[in-house]
Each structure stands twice: as C-alpha cells, then as structure tokens.
Design brief:
The complex is a heterodimer. Chain A is mostly helical. Chain A contains 20 helices and two strands. Chain B has a domain of 58 residues. Helix content of chain B is 51%, strand content 0%. The chains are: A mainly alpha, B mainly alpha.
Chain lengths: 496, 160
C-alpha cells in the first residue's frame, strides 16, 4: 500500500480555528454533562475564547509581516495579512455578540448555551473561509459558517418570524451553495486545479482557446458569493432574516458573515482570477451599483428599523463590491478598511437595536424610537454617531471607508459606477436622517412619556456600543493606522 | 467525449417512452368504472373513520438524528479503514479527532434527553404559556402561530 504524503502543518497559523472550534465543542460537552451550569459561564467562556484568538492574532501578524506570507496544509490554507486581519475582526465580533447575547437571552427567557457554541463554530468556519487558499476549503468554511448561522437565526423559539427567517435563509443559502459548488467545478474543469495559486498560475501561463467554461464558472462563483454578502439581486433573504433573527445574531450576520464573505470573494476574484478581471469586473460593478441604489431606495420605504438597517447593509455590500470591482491592490485595501469600519458600525448599531427591542424583541418600529433623545440621551447620542458613520459623514469612520472604495473605483476609471454609488449614498443618508428625526424631533408616545425612561442598557451592551463608537470616531479622526493595516492585509498568493 | 453520455440519453428516452406508452396502454385497454371510494386519495377499500393527520412526538425525529450522527461517522470510518495502512499515525489521530467531534453531538443529544422515553417532561423554554394545541395549528386564513411579539393581523412594517 502506498504511503500517503501527510501535509506540513503550521500549527501557530491554525490557532484561531483551533481555539474557536475546540472552545465551542468543549463548551457544548460541558453543558451537556453538567446539569446546572452557572449562568455566566458560557458567556465568559466565549469572551475568553474570542479574546484568546485576538491575542493569537498579534504574533501571527508580526510573523507574517516579518517572514512574509505563506501557505500551509499542502497549500490549502493561506497565512497572510488578510487571514490575520479578518480573523481578528471575526474574533472581535464574537466577543461583542457574546456580550450582547446574555442579557438578551435572559430577557427573552431562551436557553443559554447553544448561541455561544454555534457562534464560536460559525466563527471558526468564517476563519477557514477567510484563509482558504483552495476552493474546496473555501466551500467547507462557508458551510461551517452558514449552517451554524441558519440555526442561530431560528434560535428565538417562540417568534414565528425567527423560524420563518431561518427557513428562508436556509433554503436560499443551500441554493446559493449549490451555485458556488457548480462554479468551483467549472473553474476546476477549466484550469485543472482547485488551489487558488495553481489556478492563477495556469491562467497566467496559458491562453485558453475557449474560455466559456471558465467564464461560466466565474459567474456561478459570483452568484454564490454575492448571495452570502447580500448583494442585489441576491439580497431577497436579507430583510426577512434580519427582522426575524435574534438581534445579537443579526450583528454577527451583518458584521461577521459579511467580513468572511468578502475576504473569500477578494481572494478568489482579485488574487486568483485577477487575470480575467476584464471579464468579471463589469458584472461586479453592476452588482455594486444595483446594491447601493436598491438598498438605499428601498430602505427609505421601510418603517421597521431592523428592515431599514437590513437594506442599508445591502447598500454597504454594494460599496464593498465597488472596491472589489476595482480589481487591484488599492481596491482590495479599501475593501478591508471598509470591512473593519463596517464591523464596528454594524455591531454597534445592532447592539442599540438589541437594547431597544424590549420584551419579545418586537419594539423595532420607527415609532418606538420617537423621542428617544429625551428619554435616553446617551443611547440616542451613540446611535446618532453610529448612523452618521453608516451614512459616511466626515470625521466618522464611515467617511474614510466610503472615500476609500470610491477613490479606488475612480482610479480604475469607473466614473459611472462611482457616480451612481455616490447618488445612492445620498439617498441612504435620508434613511439614517429619518431615524434621527424620529429620535430627536418627535415627541415620545403618550404611554412612553409618562415617567418611563426607556429600556435599561445592560453592561455588556454599554461596552459594545462604547467601543464601537470610540472605534468609529478614532478611525474618522485618525484614519492612518487602519489604512496602513488594510494595505498590509492585501492577500498574496504563495505558489505551490 | 460527449459520446460517453449516449447510454444515459438512450436510457432517458427509453424511460420516457415506457412511461408514455404505459399511460396510453392503460387508457386504451383498462375498463373504466369509477366510483367514489376508488377516487378517494389513499384508496384502499376502507373509508377512513377519522382525520388522518396526527402529530407524533418529536422524539422520533431525535432518534433519526442520532442515527444520522452514527451514519456519518461510519461513512468516514470505512474509507479510513481501507486506507489506514497508508495514512499511518497522522490518519489515526485525524480520525480520532473526527470521531470525538462527531461523538460530541451524541453526548449533546443524550444530555438534552433525546433518549428519555419516560413521562413527558416539559421543556421550559420551548413553548410560551399562551400557546395551546389549538393555537399552534395554522388554520386556513387565520394566523394563530407564534403569538409572541405580534398582535394578530398586524402586518405593518413587513412590506418589502
């Protein structure tokens, strides 16, 4: 019998995945065996795991910066700046969601371990996806990430919207996975490898006489990935899922899933299939503009704040695609900077929504925000900052992020794309203004006015909202460090 | 290259022809004497005495899930068993880790009472007190499901 060559393993590079998956499994085992776990333990365990991953990212970053990017596990996992940056973002979001989850679970009287376990497993999948240097590994990561999120979406057992959203997400998600897998098969058929480095090598070394199979493969890959990041016209699930799912989980969907999805998209399209950018960049540009315009315009029509933010997350996906379609290092760096800022904005905003939801997670109507500034000035102020950040107002991180992707698009001569996106940004600003007007200029409801001061803000939510606001302001005032970080994070393919 | 698919195409055509011819032959040859009992769905000669749709305990699904847990484990153990000589220690450790992770889900199921077939234990979180066996069923035209967080008939904010 032939001895199978076992691959080299860089264990330090796999630490984040190991921490997250082992952390999740251990917690699940302990919770299954021990009848009465202390209430605080699952949350504390998740926070510690997330922080451990964040800490592990520091030496990884230094190692990658000093020794250069590399690949491990027989070229299927990339260890470069992109891996480390996205891992850190995912870990930070895990910590934030864990902090939000416990008060939420207690308020809604929901069982308390599964959320944390699924969150950690989902994050492990996200890290795998972000560091995939092989299409098969990418698919594995995507499935680990998604399946956990489908369950998380259904976690509010007693709300029919939660079940409905999870079902829609699951059916459409499985459909999109099939597209992605078919696309991978066609790309493999056209290039003879699933490893991104070898795909790129093949495409730069040979001229395909008939590239229809490759183009079909790229198109299907694009469909699958665009679904994950909720780009128009593959966004149909977003509003229902965002509205139905438990709000802390929505924070993970918006910040975490999107970050992993874009990291994978950039790695596949820009780095691996960069030679064919002239084929895929125009469709991505169309997706970008459609996402920004549809997201902004439809958000205006909503009266449910969660649906508004869902459509605004579609618009954000459009801006991120704007950086992708530039198909160069500047565009990619802009995408990473945008991802970091968007992670801050989304977690912060959905933390506010978690607090505002009230019993039954139902008070998300625009009217529920009336006069919030008078009842809870600090909360309203923080939400204002986060919304202004989402709108891209100067001196907030959102401005830096939007400027980056627009500049990348313009530098790539995508004047039309950039112009239309700016138009969309102006329309989107109206959405955020509507919430602001509701909070500041309108009087609170009669029942809310008599003495009640609005919802209590738990400590965990305070920390998350505070850190998010501080981060958004810091990036807005001192953008240099983030931009340098993003430039160092541009993924690199390491050959064979 | 596409010639390899010829048998599949032939089989497809044959299958289609067989189905079509069967229908035609049955239409031509069979005597037709329809009456009520024969036309009923699930016709078996006996008129159903009560409504058939019935809820049965979720435990059956859990048993099915436990089966899947071990099914998946076996699916991956077979190829490993065939190739374990070549895979060596690396393969052994990998398969052990995999088994641990799979077995973990079994522990979770047992820990949550998947195999407790004793008297019914109420799960604290699963059902809101407002829900009864009549309110859980969706009747035609009436929304009575998941009453929490929504007043009946309130569809505002859901316009896409």
């Amino acid at each position: 019998m032939l001895a199978v060559a076992t691959p080299e393993v860089l264990w330090w590079a796999l630490l984040p995945v190991l921490f997250l998956s082992v952390g999740g499994l251990l917690l699940l085992t302990v919770a299954s065996l021990v009848r009465r776990l202390p209430d605080w333990l699952p949350q504390a365990w998740t926070v510690v795991t997330g922080l451990a991953v964040l800490v592990a990212c520091v030496p990884m970053w230094c190692e990658v910066r000093d020794e250069g990017p590399r690949t491990t596990l027989a070229g299927s996992v990339a260890v470069d700046g992109s891996t480390v940056l996205v891992t850190a973002v995912l870990a930070a979001v895990v910590v934030a969601v864990a902090l939000l989850a416990r008060p939420y679970l207690r308020r809604e009287d929901l069982p308390g371990v599964e959320v944390y376990v699924l969150l950690m497993l989902s994050a492990a999948g996200g890290v795998v996806m972000a560091s995939a240097d092989d299409l098969i590994v990418l698919f594995l990561g995507l499935e680990i990430l998604s399946i956990a999120v489908y369950v998380l979406a259904a976690l509010h057992l007693r709300r029919i919207e939660s079940q409905e959203g999870a079902m829609k997400y699951f059916v459409l998600g499985a459909f999109a996975s099939a597209f992605l897998l078919y696309g991978m098969a066609l790309v493999y058929g056209a290039t003879g490898s699933t490893r991104l480095a070898l795909v790129a090598e093949h495409l730069s070394a040979t001229v395909l006489v008939d590239d229809s199979m490759l183009l079909a493969g790229i198109a299907l890959l694009l469909v699958g990935l665009a679904f994950k990041v909720a780009a128009v016209p593959f966004h149909a699930w977003t509003p229902d899922v965002y509205q139905g799912s438990p709000t802390p989980v929505v924070a993970w969907m918006a910040a975490g899933v999107k970050a992993a999805g874009f990291a994978a998209m950039v790695r596949v399209l820009v780095t691996s299939l960069g030679t064919h950018a002239s084929d895929w960049a125009p469709p991505v540009g169309v997706l970008a503009v459609a996402s920004v315009l549809v997201g902004a315009v439809v958000a205006v029509l909503q009266t449910d704040v969660r649906r508004m933010l869902a459509y605004s997350s579609v618009a954000h996906a459009g801006f991120l695609l704007l950086g992708v379609q530039a198909a160069d290092a500047d565009g990619t760096a802009a995408v990473y900077a945008y991802l970091v800022v968007y992670a801050l904005l989304a977690t912060g905003s959905f933390a506010v929504l978690t607090v505002m939801g009230g019993d039954g997670d139902a008070a998300h109507h625009l009217d529920d925000y009336r006069g919030l500034a008078r009842r809870r000035p600090v909360l309203a102020g923080a939400f204002t900052l986060l919304l202004l950040g989402q709108a891209g107002v100067p001196f907030t991180g959102g401005f830096v992020a939007k400027l980056g992707v627009l500049a990348a698009a313009v530098a790539d001569r995508g004047y039309w794309v950039a112009g239309l996106a700016m138009l969309g940004a102006a329309a989107a600003a109206f959405v955020y203004l509507r919430i602001l007007v509701s909070m500041y200029l309108e009087d609170p409801d009669a029942e809310a006015a008599d003495g009640s001061t609005g919802p209590a803000v738990p400590l965990g939510a305070r920390v998350v909202i505070g850190v998010a606001c501080a981060g958004v302001l810091f990036v807005g005032l001192v953008p240099g460090p983030l931009l340098d970080l993003a430039r160092d994070a541009v993924p690199v393919l390491v050959g064979s | 290259m596409l010639g390899q698919y010829l048998p599949v195409v032939v089989l497809l055509i044959l299958a289609f022809l067989f189905a079509a011819l069967s229908f035609v032959a049955s239409r031509l040859l069979a005597p037709r004497r329809p009456h009520d009992r024969k036309a009923a769905p699930y016709e078996c000669g006996i008129i159903p005495g009560r409504e058939t749709p019935e809820r049965f305990p979720v435990r059956f699904f859990l048993v099915a899930m436990i089966f899947i847990v071990f099914d998946i484990e076996i699916v991956f153990l077979y190829p490993w068993a065939v190739a374990h000589g070549g895979l060596g220690l690396f393969g052994l450790v990998a398969v052990l880790l995999f088994s641990l992770a799979v077995f973990e889900s079994f522990v979770y199921l047992i820990g949550n009472g998947a195999l407790e077939w004793g008297p019914v234990r109420r799960v604290r979180h699963a059902v809101s007190p407002a829900r009864t066996s009549t309110s859980t069923i969706r009747r035609a035209g009436v929304r009575e499901v998941g009453l929490e967080g929504r007043t009946i008939g309130d569809e505002s904010g859901r316009a896409a």
